[in-house]
Amino acid sequence: MWILVCCYLRYIGQPEMGVGDKARPTIVRSSIDVACSCTVVEFLTEMGCRMDFEYISRGYMFRKGRMKILVSKIFKMSQGKPSDSGVEPISQSYLVELSILAPGGQDVIGEDMKAFAEQLKPLVQLEKIDYKRLPLSMAP
């Protein structure tokens, strides 16, 4: 059995606001992933950054064409180091994330995602989230 430990930084931009956003089937925003060494936390701390929260995501990744489907459980760390005994699930639910990397202006891809999401409906409650209505501490 192989266990892969990956460290990366992810920047997720603000949802793009445009004409017809209410009619869009998906939320569109920019994203940048950067692979890095596992000492990135020490590096950022030395630069003066402060950690607000930490979580562990464990799950599965599936691909369907260009679409990436992540099915994972989110755990909070109850002690300083991540281990099987030092984590506890935040909820009994799984997080299902559908994403596609695409250039801007391709709304047809959003329709493909919506069609796939409809197939999951008996098992998964899918909804668009209005991030403006979340408390500041919960917004991504």
TrEMBL record:
Subcellular location per the Swiss-Prot or TrEMBL entry: Nucleus
InterPro entries: Mediator_Med18
UniProt keyword Protease, yes or no: no
GO biological process: regulation of transcription by RNA polymerase II; termination of RNA polymerase II transcription
Pfam families: Med18 (PF09637)
Cellular component per GO, a single term: core mediator complex
Highest taxon, organism lineage: Eukaryota
GO MF term list: transcription coregulator activity
The protein's role, per its UniProt record: Component of the Mediator complex, a coactivator involved in the regulated transcription of nearly all RNA polymerase II-dependent genes. Mediator functions as a bridge to convey information from gene-specific regulatory proteins to the basal RNA polymerase II transcription machinery. Mediator is recruited to promoters by direct interactions with regulatory proteins and serves as a scaffold for the assembly of a functional preinitiation complex with RNA polymerase II and the general transcription factors.
Family: Belongs to the Mediator complex subunit 18 family.
Protein name per its UniProtKB record: Mediator of RNA polymerase II transcription subunit 18
Annotated organism of origin: Diaphorina citri
